[in-house]
From TrEMBL:
UniProt-recorded Gene Ontology molecular function terms: peptidyl-prolyl cis-trans isomerase activity
PANTHER family: PEPTIDYL-PROLYL CIS-TRANS ISOMERASE HP_0175-RELATED (PTHR47245:SF2), PEPTIDYLPROLYL ISOMERASE (PTHR47245)
Listed name of the protein: PpiC domain-containing protein
Signal peptide per UniProt: none
Location of the PpiC domain: 147-237
Gene3D superfamilies xrefs: 3.10.50.40, Porin chaperone SurA, peptide-binding domain
Alphabetical list of InterPro entries matching this protein: PPIase_dom_sf, PPIase_PpiC, PPIase_PpiC_CS, PrsA_foldase, Trigger_fact/SurA_dom_sf
Amino acid sequence: TYYIAEVNESGITSDQLQKTFLNAISRYDDTALSGLDQSAILSFKKNILDQLINYELFYQQAQKEKIKISNDDINLEIDKIKDNFSSPEEFNEALKANNITPAQLKEDIKRQLMINSILEETRNQISISDEELLEYYNENKESFLELEQVYARHILVETEEEANNLLLQLKEGLTDFAELAKEKSIGPSAPSGGDLGFFTRGQMVKEFEDAAFSLEPGEISDVVQTQFGYHIIKCEEKKEEYSPAFEEAKERISNTLRYQKENEAISTFISKLKEEAVIVYNY
């Protein structure tokens, strides 16, 4: 057997690398893949090999720590996989197509659960103090600022004359705005009754934005001309600019810091394992 790399005398085969590589690129569409040149593919493969080495190091550490995985845990994971198939036969066919035996699948899952356990152990060592949370809040206040937003609908037509006629119908209360948008608007939001959802300043063309932000909830604009044609805008809801207090932002900050610290802890752990390991590259 040809090993492309060895980690403490445990080999990673070129088949393993190729299989993991093909699995990774299957998530990309053809356009993204056709843009990859030879050096990008080599770099991608090198990253995957690094990942396989990291997993091998985690697995060896899990063995060293004698981490036990029960059959119940393994079967639970197999049941989760089976849930993605419409029948047991379809599941078995998928195993055959991928050249995986049920025993191999069990072994792969056991290995993955052992690695997960080691990673979880590393993550659980993280702690974040209130002082750190407050410091992050004070240093990043601007990122928590929620900008003024408008929730609007619009009707877009080609001529000013048609827009004025529709506006007259709306002002006289002869028709519902959303129904009229479905019937008459030529904009892409017509099927949803002209619904544009919430938007902030800078997301729409200036004439449209100025009109939309000048309205109060329930108000309908005069006819507004833009490069797209003639619009009638209805403001459904408005949210003023808002800066959340520390207590409101605390959970969000905690999640951000935890994510950062967990990644740092895992990187440090990998570096330590690599320093203590004998890694041989055979290419």
